[in-house]
Specification:
The chain has one domain: Rossmann fold. It contains 13 helices and 15 strands. The strands form four sheets. A nine-stranded mixed beta sheet has the order 3-4-5-6-9-10-12-14-15, with helices on both faces. Strands 1-2 form a two-stranded antiparallel ribbon. Helix 2 runs antiparallel to helix 3.
Amino acid sequence: MEVDGFVAPRYEALRPFKPEKTDEFPVYPNLVETLVATKEHPDKTIRHAMAVCSTYAYGDVSTVATIMARMGLEQNHCLMIHEYVDAMFITSTSFLVQSSDGRAAILCYRGTPVTSLITWLTNLNIEPTHIDVKSPTGSRECYVHGGFYRNVRSTRYEILNALKRAIAGRSVALKDDDQDGKLNKLEALYITGHSLGGASAALLALLLVTEPAYERDILKRLKAVYTFGAPMLASRELASDCNEHQFLHERVIRYVYDSDVVPQVPPRESGRFAHFGRGYQYKPKGKGDKWVPNDEPKKQLRNLLEIPTSVLSLVTPDITLTRRLHFHSSIRDHLPQYYIQALTPDDVRSEFGD
C-alpha cells in the first residue's frame, strides 16, 4: 500500500497458489476440515502443520504458499505483511494463509533467524521498555515487553483488514472489490510462530481478548494459538491473570524443545516476565509421545552476560568442555527444524514427501 511514496506496510501476495499434484502430496488431504472441525487442542495434525508453517515463515511468500499447499492447503491464498524500523527494534513479518474455499486461515509470524539470534537477545536486554496493557480479568493494569508490543502493533491494521476480508468471504490476497467469485466466510483461524514469532502470536491473541478496538468477529473464529520456542512476553501479574482466562489458558499452547534457551528470556534485568497458556516440553528419552505437559514456571535468565561468555566458549579452547556443550545444546535446541522433526507423526510424510 503506497502512500506518498511510502510503503506502509509492505505486502506481497499470491492468489491462489496451485502446486503440481503428486502421489506424496498433500500430506494431510483433509487438513481444511481438520482445522475447521477440531474442538480439542492440542491436536497432533494441527500442531505439525503449525510447526511447518512457522519454520517456513523464515522464507518468502512463494515458499510459504508452496509448503502449505503440500501440507494440505492446496490452491491457498497467501499474503505476506512486513515492516522494518531498525531504530525501534521493529522487525515484523507475518503470513496469512487462507484455504482455497475460504473456511480456514493460518496467521503465522516469522521469528528471528538463528544467524541473528545473539543480536536479538542483546536487543532485549538494552531495550527493556514496558508497555501497559489491560488484564483479561479487567482488574488491574499490567505490562508486556515493549519490543514485542511494537512488533505486533506495527502491522496489526493490515492483518486485521485482511482478516475482515476473509470473514466477508473474500481473498486475503486481493484488496480490490472486483474479485472472481466469492469464497466461503472464514470459520477457523489459527495463529502461530517460532521464537519471536511465537511471542507475537500469543500477544495478538491477548490483544484480541482485551482491546475493544480489535474485532470481536475475529476472536470468535480464533480456534487456538500454537507457539514454538517462544520467549516470555507478559509480566508475572499479567501471565497469572491470563491463566485465569479460559481461552488464553486452554488455547494458547506452547512447545519447548528439550533445553531451548529462548523460553527463558527476556532476562530478569528487563523485568519480571512469565509465560501463560499450556506448556509442553520435548523429552528425547521419553516413551510414546515425547511431548509431555510442563506448566512449571520457566526460570528467567538473570542477565545476558552468560550468553557472550558461552558463545566465546564455542571458539575458545581453554574453556571447560562441559560448559561449552551445555550452551551449545541450548542454542541448537532452538532451531526450528528440531521442532518439526519432533512434531512429525511417525506414520506421516514430511513436507518433502518422504
